[in-house]
């Protein structure tokens, strides 16, 4: 795990790696797809070694990416959304309230919350 004391070293190392990858791309030694894939793999490693600490987003941004959601995190979010929707609807909550709660309590985007609501919400006949 990256500690606060070593974060600046990690930042310098990632900036160096990014510059080298870009250089390899510019000289034709890496294709655009290879460059994108390598940055993605590095972001996956960052996500795992930082384990969600406050430096994760900073380090991932250096490589030009976003924080990657692991499969287990996705499944946990899906389960939470399902429970929130089912229990919320049983208590008579409207869709707007359910969407807001999924965003606030689970940290889903509006698009993700809407997709779960469409998938798990009551189907009116």
Characterize the structure shown.
It is a single chain. The chain has six helices and no strands. With 125 residues, the chain is mainly α. The protein folds into two domains: 4-62, no CATH class; 71-120. Helix 2 packs antiparallel against helix 3 (56-62), helix 4 (71-90) packs antiparallel against helix 5 (95-106) and helix 4 (71-90) packs across helix 6. The longest helix has 20 residues, at 7-26. The model has no long low-confidence stretch (mean pLDDT 81).
Distinctive features:
125 residues, mainly alpha, 2 domains, 0% strand
Mean pLDDT: 81
Give the low-pLDDT segments. none
Shape: elongated
- How can the largest sheet be summarized? none
User: What is the number of domains?
Assistant: 2
* Strands, count: 0
Strand content: under 5%
Q: Rounded to an integer, what's the Rg over CA atoms?
A: 20 Å
Q: Which structural category do the helix and sheet elements fall into?
A: mainly alpha
